[in-house]
Specification:
One of its GO terms (molecular function) is RNA-directed DNA polymerase activity. Keywords: Nucleotidyltransferase, RNA-directed DNA polymerase, Transferase. The chain is mainly alpha-helical. The chain has helices at residues 14-17, 29-34, 44-59, 77-87, 94-97, 104-114, 121-126, 146-152, 154-164, 177-187. The chain folds into two domains: 7-85, no CATH class; 119-187, no CATH class. It is elongated. Bound molecules: zinc ion. Zinc ion binds next to loops.
Length: 192
């Protein structure tokens, strides 16, 4: 457990509580305890204060885990959401596929597609599982990937050519499923 960056007392993370301490290092709480909190960079006054915090924690009646992302150490779904929201990279697709007119099961499917989390054959092979891949969507079997199933297979190309053109999406202009979906969101009429 990190001495500076994780919450081990009920006063929040020390890096926030003592924000004027320069260059808080990567010292563990265990190491800090073993040196009686003689941590480089902090004054004797702060050391005494931290010793008091530690002793109060050790002598407390309760022994429960403290959540890092709230100052009082209590878990809330709100704080978890805010933490995850800030930690995850911005996805330009998100404002399109979570809209109300797209059925939720399709939104979830697309969310899984973006995270490479749909168990097509090539994804299973990625997990070091020996598997002979063979799609069931073409007369002559091909390797089953997301791009194949939804973009390159005989069924997929027929559907894209049949319906995509109506909405201004021409399959041959795009190199992969992701680019095509991006175009659909940006070119095709809203609600199509
Ligand atoms: Zn196929």
């Amino acid at each position: 457990m990190s001495f500076w960056y994780e919450i081990w007392s009920c006063a929040g993370a020390l890096v926030d509580t003592f924000s004027d301490v320069a260059n808080p290092g990567r010292i563990s709480l265990k190491d800090a305890v073993e040196t009686n909190f003689m941590v480089p960079g902090i004054s004797d006054t702060i050391t005494t204060h931290i010793q008091g915090m530690y002793n109060a924690r050790i002598m407390a009646d309760s022994d429960t885990r403290l959540w890092l992302h709230t100052s009082d150490g209590l878990f809330t779904t709100n704080s978890a959401f805010r933490h995850l929201h800030m930690a995850v990279a911005f996805c330009p697709f998100a404002r399109f596929y979570w809209v109300k007119f797209i059925p939720k099961k399709m939104s979830v499917m697309f969310w899984r597609f973006l995270r490479n989390a749909i168990p097509v054959d090539v994804r299973i092979q990625d997990c070091a599982i020996n598997l002979a891949s063979g799609c069931v969507c073409c007369a002559h079997r091909n390797i089953e990937s997301m791009d194949h199933l939804f973009f390159r297979s005989e069924v997929a190309t027929f559907l894209w050519d049949r319906f995509g053109a109506i909405f201004g999406i021409h399959r041959l202009n795009y190199s992969c499923l992701k680019d095509t979906i991006w175009a659909w969101f940006n070119i095709a009429p809203r609600g199509s």
